[in-house]
Design goal:
This protein is mainly alpha-helical and 419 residues long. Helices cover 69% and strands 0% of the residues.
């Protein structure tokens, strides 16, 4: 226990150490997060009336970000599967960054759900009447919290073993890795079922929603990790090979192609059949009765996705500059398509035929920016703590003046270290 507390203390200390760029980045994130906290306090006092949500459009920017981030968290499996299933060693040294991302993102997901509730005490209703397995909401609670605990255990155990300078026991983490792979698929599938199961919203009543969720998740997540790994490689001593980045590129490439194909299938089904439930799709893509607030956004998302897919297919994307452009376009396009482009149109028009458009308020935007800043701050701290531990710069041995490779005799090693 003493050694573990020492490990936590040293990790906490190193998270406050960096150059001027690190301090600038952390200061900016902290300031934005505090603005978001202030905006949430205003919402807590005045209620959801200060948001752009109404009785007609009851889900908005909060749930849109939640949906996108669930996919970002599930994408950690795209690093785990090649390493532990297919024995691809190119990603072996960077797989933990995907799992750390999953931890930070799941915390962000829970925060977005909390701010969307309006009153956090309403969480008690879920636990007082935990309607399992009938309620899909209880499935989502189990899926999100279970995935968070799995990744916390895997990351914490591997980092602690690296700090102690010992080889991790496969018994204590490999079974959890394979459970996490299945769990990663389940969290996005369960989230999709939350929407698909709402019969009063025809825009979501499609069996293809869950596969679309997974395809977009497995594109946006690895794309984000590609950008992160390049920052880690540039500003730290941790080794990230080009082979690892190109392996992730192939994952993003395939996932983007599948995502575009599934979107095309959805558009064909909606518009070619011209059913009575096509109104929401018309509002999203073409506008309806003079209302077209989301039309520029969704077509921007489609252009970004199409350009990103074309770039990823071209051999030029093996170069990092083109790859980075493709990754940014993929992330932005999927954020729009899977966020506002998925959530809001299901409420317009309402089942009674009312046309009420949703526009987020400044307070909502500040809350969202605050949560995103807090999540990025957490992820930055996680990476800042893990890189020195994984590279051997911080170990328990070094507290006693030993360097990597030293082999002190048993009598020279302190008693707690010998244990």
């Amino acid at each position: 226990m003493k050694r573990y507390l020492t490990f936590l203390w040293e990790c906490l200390q190193i998270s406050f150490v960096g150059d001027w760029r690190y301090y600038t980045w952390m200061t900016v994130l902290t300031i934005v997060a505090l603005f978001g906290l202030h905006a949430y306090c205003r919402q807590l006092v005045h209620g959801l009336v200060i948001t752009g949500m109404t009785d007609q459009v009851s889900w908005g920017l909060y749930i849109a970000n939640f949906t996108y981030l669930v996919g970002l968290a599930a994408a950690a499996a795209m690093l785990v599967i090649p390493v532990y299933v297919y024995r691809n060693m190119h990603l072996h040294d960077v797989v933990i960054f995907g799992e750390l991302l999953a931890v930070a993102v799941i915390i962000m997901c829970l925060l977005f759900v909390t701010v969307d509730l309006g009153r956090p005490d309403r969480f008690l209703h879920i636990f007082q009447r935990f309607n399992f397995p009938v309620s899909m909401l209880t499935w989502d609670v189990i899926a999100l919290n279970g995935y968070l605990l799995l990744n916390l255990h895997i990351c914490g155990y591997l980092l602690y073993c690296a700090y102690c300078g010992r080889t991790p026991s496969k018994l204590f983490y490999v079974p959890f890795v394979f459970i996490a792979i299945v769990w990663a698929v389940s969290i996005h599938t369960v989230t999709a079922f939350l929407y698909v199961g709402l019969g009063g919203r025809p825009f979501w009543n499609s069996a293809i929603i869950a596969p679309r969720f997974l395809a977009s998740a497995f594109a946006a997540g690895p794309a984000f990790i590609i950008l992160t790994l390049q920052i880690v490689r540039h500003y730290t001593t941790h080794k990230v090979t080009d082979d690892a980045l190109l392996t992730l590129r192939r994952i993003v490439q395939v996932a983007m192609i599948i995502n575009i194909f599934l979107l095309g299938c959805e558009l064909f089904t909606e518009f070619y059949t011209d059913s009575a439930h096509v109104a929401s799709a018309q509002y999203l893509y073409l506008g309806l009765h003079g209302r077209h607030a989301l039309v520029p956004w969704i077509w921007t998302a489609i252009v970004c996705g199409a350009v990103a897919t074309i770039l990823l297919v071209l051999p030029a994307s093996r170069g990092l500059r083109v790859l980075n452009v493709a990754c940014v376009l993929a992330i932005v396009g999927i954020w729009i398509e899977k966020g506002m482009g998925l959530i809001v149109p299901a409420f317009v028009p309402t089942p009674l035929g009312e046309m009420v458009e949703y526009v987020p308020t400044l307070n909502e935007i500040l809350v969202c920016l605050g949560i995103w800043s807090f999540g990025l701050l957490l992820y930055t701290v996680f990476v800042r703590m893990s890189v020195p531990v994984l590279s051997g710069e911080i170990t328990y041995l070094k507290r006693y003046g030993y360097q990597a490779g030293d082999r002190p005799g048993p009598s020279a090693v302190p008693a707690e270290l010998r244990s």
